[in-house]
Amino acid sequence: MVRKMDEVAVKKVLYLSYDGMTDPLGQSQVLPYLTGLTKRGYQFTLISFEKEERFIKNKSIIEKICSDNKINWHPLPYTSKPPIFSTIKDLRKLKSQVKKSFIPYFHFDIVHCRSYITALAGLWMKRKWGVKFVFDMRGFWADERVDGNIWKLNNPIFKLVYTLFQKERESFFIKS
Q1: Are 16 and 47 in contact (CB under 8 A)?
Q2: pTM
Q3: Rg of the chain on CA atoms, in Å
Q4: I need a surface site. Which of 14, 107, 114, 142 has the fewest CB within 10 A?
């Protein structure tokens, strides 16, 4: 027997976003998606990376949306400097938050990752705990960095990171 989407068994989802919910993209794309799925029986724990200025300005709005829709939101501070090292720091913060705060107390059926950075954590969770892994990409992040002249491939650090993401990209698709 095939069940309709409205009859889905409750699924606990850990949703990881490197985009902030206080950013326009979080408010226009991520939150409507999550609020719609909560009405269909999904339970979300949301971890996002928030830019300080927008977080201060919009925190209460996002808290209300999440509270009204029973979304358990855990904002983390986004860091941008120095390049690459700040992203590694953010990834460590994310893994630490998951490891210390959630895994000992909650069982998640799915980890949904909305970026390449969070996909590194999601793939780690899949390998470590066998959590189902959903990789939700909009474009190849590393290519976007190069195409936008944010990363210059003549810089050995950017070249190394770009190459690492090129290699991991296949894992994200195969394991997802």
Answers
A1: yes
A2: 0.76
A3: 17
A4: 107
